[in-house]
Amino acid sequence: MKRTTLFFAAIVIFIFTAAIFTGAKGIFMAKDTPELRNGKIDLSKWDFERQGVVALSGEWEFYWKRLISEDDIINGTLGRYDVLADVPEKWNGYVIDGGEIGGYGYATYRARVKLHHINELVYIKVNDFSSAYKLYVDDVLVGENGMVSDEQIYSMPEFDPAIYHYKTKRDYVDIVVQVSNFSHDKGGFWEPLYIGSGFHIAKLHQQSLISDFFLMGFMLSMALYHIVIASFIKRQKAFFYFAVFCIIMCARIMLTGERFVLDIFGWIGWELAQKLEYLTFYAALPVFLKFMDTLFENVFSKRLNEIIYMTSAAFVGIVVFLPAGAYTRSVLLFQLLTLASGIYIVRKLHEAVKLRRTGSLEILIGFTLMLVLVTLEIVGTNGYEGYLGYKGMTFWGVMIFFFSMAFGVSKQFSLAFIETERLATENKLMLSKIRKLNRALKKRNMELSNKVSRDGLSGLYNHRHLHEKLHEKIEKAVVGNTSLSIGMFDIDRFKDVNDNHGHQFGDKVIVEVARILAENTRSRDVVGRYGGEEFMIIFDSVDAVDCINISDRLREKVAKEIKEILGIEVTISGGVVELQQNEKPDEIIQRADRLLYRAKENGRNRIECEKGPA
Known about the structure:
With about 625 residues, this protein is an alpha+beta fold. About 55% of the residues lie in helices and about 15% in strands. It has helices at about 1-20, 50, 70-75, 200-230, 240-255, 260-265, 270-295, 300-320, 325, 330-355, 360-380, 390-455, 465-480, 495-500, 505-520, 545-565, 585-600, and strands spanning about 40, 55, 60-65, 85, 90, 95, 100, 105-115, 120-125, 130-135, 140-145, 160-165, 170-180, 190, 195, 485-490, 525-530, 535-540, 570-580, 605-610, 610-614. Strands 1, 3, 4, 8, 10, 11 and 13 form a seven-stranded mixed sheet that branches. It has a six-stranded mixed sheet with strand order 17-18-16-19-20-21, sandwiched between helices. A four-stranded antiparallel sheet has the order 2-15-9-12, covered by helices on one side. Helix 5 (about 240-255) packs antiparallel against helix 7 (about 270-295).
């Protein structure tokens, strides 16, 4: 409940802030202004300095396929107008000479404005025309846009919103606007002319630019924000698509309204500007749908999405490859596609709400409000062409949606952060348990390994592991072309030790002999209990001569330390050999074992080698 209240309060604050920047032009636009009736408007009681700007909306005299001038009015050759045309409105559909006119052609609009003062300096602001115009005040050409002609080959369209001024010579002025259109599907006034003092017209223009820059800055900041998020959260592509959507909307703002991008990039012609304007409209829908689809995964229909993507791509292709006269006719169809897609998105967002997707309720509310306002603007009094701009109801709808979307996404972030913190805590505890289990497992593995490879009494390698090590050492010596020797050792008269001192004392003798042998050999040598009171040592990288010397020192060491520790005389005998070419493990052991028995036969307490005793 608190979050929902906060959400709606934030929307109100945001709209109020946006209104300050975008709606302040109402200060300079007069309220309840007169309108043109029968081609005339009475502003004799209107003070531009005090009461502000007046939009010249209403009924203008309309002369179809006639480019009249002030001279025609003065000379009386003007003739009667064809119809009273509503401004702002396209001229398409007017019935003249028994038939409806289309968008292509040329015409003149005329209005008489009665003013408050004589010799008054008035300013006129002109926004968009369909293509080209010439603006006359009385008999003076005060401004033009493109090239006006009654022939298509000489008519040249252009976009150039402008402000003109004129000092009146009497208490009224005749405003004559010649218009030719051979490029756009719709002809005529899209927006009214604005008349007023220099101060208020300048402020109106300035406020319009501020509105554009405010909206553009807002869209651009949203784009940059979501690009940064997308760079950190690469698996969530929705932020990237929303950033692209914001960039498209930012470009659209630059290409509509005051069209200030055309002042910055003067090389952009009318055709390119028109194409870019339509492309930003047609490309926004598929990008927005892709954003929604990735934000709420497994909610939207893949098949319907592909249909909308392909249809939008077809419209984009029409804009890219066809002239303005062709692709400007497609806007109504695309508006219908946009409305149908909007209804589809609302349904899927409703499904996301039922699935309890985080942020879906806020986004559903914002998007539904935007869709309703957009629909009203499309079918409203301003005509369906109004959606191509961002002002009016569509503007507020977009603002509401953007804020609701930001709120919904921030809600996702906050809940995701809380969930991340919880998972991090659980993960920390789990890692601690895993480390303990790993230590216990490692210890257990070591114990099992020792049981498998070590002798239980002496702690040395056992018989089986000695054979494995001998295989490894022989392979290494053969590959490295190094020496390898082994020694077989046996405790002399060990049976007498057991008989005289008991088997437990005999075990002590075995343990001490094993310790002495292990402590007095290198770490890369292998010492093991071969069986009973017999031991084997594998001397790595040692030839027969060195092996004999080392073995003899071990023999002396055993005799001395056993006497000191256990108090009895114990000696060992041994046989040592060096690995021969192509010799197998069993063969070298047999040779060493034979020499061990020779040492026993020759009186014990000695080391035998194949060349004689050590």
